[in-house]
Specification:
With 232 residues, the chain is of the alpha+beta class. The protein has three domains: 96 residues, Sandwich (Immunoglobulin-like), CATH 2.60.40; 72 residues; 56 residues, no CATH class. 47% of the residues lie in helices and 20% in strands. The protein is built from nine helices and nine strands. The strands form three sheets. The chain has a four-stranded antiparallel sheet, with no helix packed on it. The chain has a three-stranded mixed sheet with strand order 4-1-7, with no helix packed on it. The protein has a two-stranded antiparallel ribbon with strand order 8-9. It comes from Sphingobacterium populi. This is Carboxypeptidase-like regulatory domain-containing protein.
Length: 232
């Protein structure tokens, strides 16, 4: 009888210690992936909804955050749909996120493939998503939106807008600063002309005000600089 009593106390003590470990916060590690490609995702915000502590995934998609059993973690950002996971055991977590179809992460390669009409629509959308203030219908005037001003989606939209506008301006310049015009004025080869255009592309404000003579003078001066910078 005494042996059974000691055995029962021992089992209860083990269970108590185990519950204590899961009740107290400990470092929970995980990895975040793209659902379709299984690519590891960096820069994903991971927030413990119970403690409000947060962190971001590193370049390999890894994160480590203080959490305990029955906590909820919310993952968001990077152009992916936000998701919430429930912690039921303190083990390594693998989390798969789905692309948010309404959030477009822009890069230069993507943007050069857009048609002019699609480029214009993406500029309009980025301007709207990146607005920090909007008209108030109830009180009049402007209402500043903290989520748009400081949120990841608003910041991404404003970053996208800079890239989109730069591409739009470059296209407007290149319609005048053409290969044919450069070829007619310089002995540059077909391989050299793209480098020349990229390195010496004039500003949109210059193109909008320049006469044909101004543009020809600009190309001649730029060619002289190009040869100094790229001697054969």
């Amino acid at each position: 009888m005494m042996m059974k009593t000691y055995l029962s106390i021992t089992i209860l003590l083990i269970l108590f210690l185990a519950n204590g470990l899961t009740a107290n916060g400990q470092e929970l590690k995980g990895v975040v992936y793209d659902l379709e490609s299984s690519t590891k995702l960096r820069g994903i915000l991971v927030r413990n909804l119970n403690s409000n502590k947060q962190t971001e995934t590193d370049s390999e998609g890894n994160f480590s955050i203080e959490a305990k059993t029955n906590d909820y973690l919310r993952l968001s950002g990077g152009g992916y749909e936000a998701d919430t996971i429930f912690i039921y055991e303190p083990a390594l977590r693998r989390v798969y996120l789905v692309r948010d179809p309404e959030t477009l992460v822009i890069n230069e390669v993507y943007v050069t493939r857009l048609s002019d009409s699609r480029l214009a629509s993406e500029i309009a959308r980025a301007k709207n998503d990146g607005k920090a203030a909007e008209a108030s219908q109830n009180r009049g005037g402007l209402r500043v939106s903290p989520s748009r001003l400081f949120g990841r989606r608003g910041k991404q939209a404003r970053s996208n807008l800079d890239i989109l506008i730069a591409e739009r301006d470059n296209r407007m310049v290149d319609r005048v600063f053409t290969n044919q015009l450069i070829r007619s004025m310089t002995p540059l080869t077909d391989d050299e002309i793209p480098l020349f255009r990229e390195g010496y592309r004039p500003s949109l404000s210059f193109i909008e005000s320049a006469t044909p003579e101004d543009l020809r003078a600009y190309i001649s001066e730029s060619y002289t600089k190009y040869r100094k910078d790229n001697p054969k």
